[in-house]
Design goal:
Layout lengths: L2 H11 L6 E3 L7 E2 L5 E11 L10 H18 L3 E11 L4 H19 L2 E9 L4 E11 L14 E4 L15 H6 L6 E4 L4 H12 L2 E4 L10 H6 L6 E5 L10 E7 L6 E3 L2 E2 L11 H10 L1
Parallel strand pairs: 4-5, 9-12
Antiparallel strand pairs: 1-2, 3-6, 4-6, 7-10, 7-11, 8-10, 9-11, 12-13
Helix pairs in contact: 2-3
């Protein structure tokens, strides 16, 4: 099967979204937004030996490729509409690997109402995937990182320290329920210590973490710093009722913007950073 035949088969598998007026088959997709919407756009890569290994099931790799982006849409309180997928794979993997990848991705796309509107196929020495997702929120209602205030309560949507190779469940319904309620929100992709630091920097506040809910079998270090949890971290005013199943972990406090404390002790922002140098890691290791 050649590239044209693969794309045609994918076109038949992909369901067109209600506002995608033109999908796979032309030079561009066409999306017609409603009045009163702010559009959300997110792009995230998935690279072999960085985000996954080749021996993982391709359906899980495909699911995670889309889910990572949907988690960011959730963190903004948005509804996803469509995605664009650019996939490059080694020739030896063949069409079976490609279709298994898309089966995993499209299963999640159907569950979340995310249309596959187009993309690109190519070959490369390693597997590389770029996913772009478009979503929307009612105008002016997007959740931001910058609204936390002293006295706000910190919550997470689930326990932390999850295995990095499992399917991801983006918290889209929770994100929508937080519109007009949460003062700030972020998805936990790079580790609690780093992502909470980012919220505090954006909001010009500090944070006191009182407890860290850890999944069974994980360490506190993994829950704090490893990332790949894709839960939502959000803040609510003290008198606000938290969503069901959310877990209180601490409080926003006055202090140096970006400072985070765990049970009164400074907590370094040591989450995952693609560009962290070996010198930084050695210095951090010497401090531990």
């Amino acid at each position: 099967m050649n590239e044209v035949a693969i794309i045609e088969k994918l076109r038949k598998l992909a369901a067109r979204g209600p506002r995608v007026t033109l999908g796979i088959g032309d030079d561009c997709a066409i999306f017609r937004p409603r009045a009163g919407q702010d559009l959300l756009f997110k792009i995230d890569p998935m690279m072999e030996d960085v985000h996954f290994r080749r021996d993982q099931p391709p359906a899980i790799i495909g699911q995670r490729a889309l889910a990572r982006n949907l988690s960011d849409i959730a963190a903004m309180g948005g509804d996803p509409h469509f995605c664009l997928i650019s996939l490059a794979v080694p020739r030896e993997l063949g069409e079976n690997w490609i279709f298994a990848f898309y089966r995993g991705l499209l299963a999640l796309a159907r569950r979340t109402g995310t249309a596959l509107a187009g993309g690109h196929l190519a070959h490369s020495e390693k597997i590389h995937c770029d996913v772009t997702v478009c979503g929307s929120v009612p105008r002016g209602k997007a959740l931001l990182r910058s609204g936390a205030r002293p006295g706000d309560i910190l919550y997470v949507s689930g326990r932390l320290g999850k295995p990095w190779d499992r399917p991801i469940q983006p918290r889209l319904a929770l994100g929508k329920s937080l519109r007009g309620r949460a003062t700030s929100c972020i998805d936990l992709s790079d580790g609690l210590s780093l992502d909470l630091h980012r919220v505090c920097v954006a909001s010009s506040v500090a944070a006191e973490v009182e407890r860290v809910p850890v999944v069974r079998g994980a360490t506190i270090e993994r829950a704090l710093h490893a990332g790949e949890d894709y839960e939502l971290l959000f803040t609510l005013r003290p008198n606000a009722r938290p969503p069901r199943a959310s877990i209180r972990i601490g409080t926003i406090v006055r202090g140096r913007p970006g400072a985070v404390f765990l049970q009164g002790q400074p907590l370094a922002a040591r989450g995952y950073d693609h560009f962290r140098s070996a010198m930084d890691e050695n210095q951090e290791g010497a401090r531990r």
